[in-house]
Design brief:
With 490 residues, the protein is α/β, with parallel strands linked by helices. Among the domains are: 107 residues, Rossmann fold; 164 residues, Rossmann fold (3-Layer(aba) Sandwich). The protein is built from 23 helices and 10 strands. Helix 20 links the parallel strand 6 and strand 7. Helix 5 packs antiparallel against helix 6, helix 8 runs antiparallel to helix 9 and helix 15 packs parallel to helix 22. The longest helix has 16 residues. The model has no long low-confidence stretch (mean pLDDT 93).
């Protein structure tokens, strides 16, 4: 098919991101020839760029009905992926492979569609085929490496992240996730230096600019030099669980500097004051410009700057946070004045980054049949509305309304016999207090739990139960209940 002057003009406008002008010309061409598959495909891609997914699908399907072309299959698959219709994308791309001669793009998008359909083994094969066709594709290497992290195969992830860096040296996202892959195999000696690249990621830069806009101007970053006569300022950068887990290093920091300032999330301030009275713990809102410090460091950089080796990462795994006697007594009198085996449960944490860790509350049903057991809810914020589903059926007491901050949560935990929860800050707090805890992990779990799940490296008191590949949360809690019956309650 020859290309008309008007088509060339429209395509040039499209290529220069002058989408409205390009669309006007595309429509004129289609009025003259409604069966022009090439123009239908282009206007479909234009609509895809405008995020008008309904219109994009309409035009792209029409183009493919007119002509079975690999590029048109790819375009429509991209629309389905944008619409999160991953099964449709898989079926379409499988049809393409059986219908036309396919290149790299078809297999690349097939890998993406399979991955989002939770068909990881098929996704692996598709990405490997894509790389066979285009070995120097950095996006395919990156997606395959990320997939291997999902598949709990960090060694393969490391292999392909390194290939990414051969193709595109110095890419920050790749270096960061390479560090995470090394963490999974418990190689912190190697992983910590790569993990430092998180500070160059756009999300971290944005956080620094919004939360700590004056720090870089006021004092240098601490890089491990002697600071015994200096004031060190360290501050949070991630979630509650990360801050609790790395709080184990605070005593080491106190040894290194003249004075230690810590700025945690406000919900953690009092707990850290109670646990580390030698440090000065700041409240969330205060002016760095009015506070003296000589050097500063983000909290997750502490083990790297301390020069810790893998064997030292898990120091104080027997417990290092504590509740105050007055809060312990308050909870004993108001919630725990009984002789039953006391279990607190939590089913949801922050879902901003991932939802795999959310447990359906009905899965906890078997626990309520255990003899001489009293169940408490420690669910706060997101997911707390689910409490009523349990309260309507079972004897359960809500602790969360009394939690003004984590120092109160610690007071409650001190009175418990066991915590059972998803991968959330409550598990870290229980572990950091050396309180027995069962943490329930999804099949694709976070790097910090490593590969050997027979024990927890970070906390002696934490036992790990991981969701099986085809297992439901209900089935996992049945296993937990059986374990309690056999090991703890007899």
């Amino acid at each position: 098919m020859t290309t008309s002057k008007k088509e060339k003009q429209a395509f040039n406008l499209h290529n220069c991101a002058k989408l409205e002008e390009a669309e006007k010309l595309y429509i004129e061409i289609l009025e003259e020839n409604p069966e022009n598959a090439r123009i239908l495909n282009l206007i479909g891609l234009l609509k895809l760029a405008q995020k008008d997914l309904t219109a994009a699908e309409h035009y792209l399907k029409h183009a493919l009905e007119i002509e079975k072309d690999a590029y048109y299959y790819e375009s429509l698959a991209r629309a389905y992926i944008a619409e999160k219709q991953y099964q449709k994308a898989c079926s379409l791309l499988e049809e393409a492979i059986n219908t036309v001669k396919c290149g790299f793009e078809i297999y690349f998008y097939l890998g993406l569609a399979y991955k989002n359909s939770i068909e990881y083994e098929k996704a692996e094969k598709a990405y490997l085929k894509a790389l066979e066709l285009q070995p120097q594709s950095e996006p395919a290497c990156y997606n395959l490496a990320s997939l291997y992290l999902f598949l709990n195969n960090p060694q393969k992830a490391i292999e392909y992240f390194k290939k990414c860096l051969e193709i595109t040296p110095g890419k920050v996202e790749t270096l960061y996730f390479l560090g995470i892959a090394y963490f999974r195999i418990k190689d912190y000696d190697t992983g910590l230096k790569y993990f430092e690249n998180r500070l160059c990621r756009q999300t971290a830069i944005t956080t620094q600019q919004v939360t700590y806009p004056k720090i870089m101007e006021k004092a240098p970053l601490w890089k491990g030099e002697d600071i015994k006569d200096k004031v060190l300022y360290t501050y949070y950068e991630a979630g509650f669980g990360d801050m609790i887990m790395f709080a184990r290093y605070i005593p080491e920091l106190l040894k290194r500097c003249k004075k230690l300032l810590i700025k945690p999330q406000k919900e953690l301030s009092q707990l850290l004051r109670d646990s580390f009275p030698e440090a000065e713990v700041m409240d969330l809102f205060y002016d760095e410009a009015q506070t003296h410090f000589d050097v500063h460091i983000p909290f997750l950089s502490v083990p790297y700057v301390l020069g810790l080796e893998t064997k030292d990462m898990f120091m104080r795994h027997e417990g290092y946070l504590r509740a105050t006697p007055d809060k312990i007594q308050y909870y004993k009198e108001n919630f725990f004045n009984n002789d039953k085996f006391k279990i607190a449960i939590k089913w949801q944490g922050n879902t901003y980054y991932e939802t795999d860790r959310v447990i359906n509350v009905d899965a906890f049903a078997p626990l309520f049949g255990l003899p001489n057991v009293k169940i408490y809810s420690a669910q706060t914020f997101q997911g707390s509305e689910e409490y009523q589903k349990l309260a309507a059926k079972y004897d359960i007491t809500d602790l969360s309304r009394s939690f003004k901050d984590f120092s109160y949560t610690a007071g409650a935990i001190a009175n418990l016999d066991l915590v059972i929860c998803n991968d959330t800050s409550l598990a870290h707090l229980a572990g950091a207090m050396n309180k027995p805890c069962i943490v329930l992990l999804p099949y694709q779990y976070n790097w910090r739990w490593h590969m050997d799940l027979t024990h927890c490296d970070w906390y002696d008191s934490v036992k790990i139960f991981r969701l099986g590949k085809r297992e439901s949360w209900n089935e996992l809690l049945e296993r937990v209940t059986q374990y309690l019956n056999e090991e703890l309650l007899n």
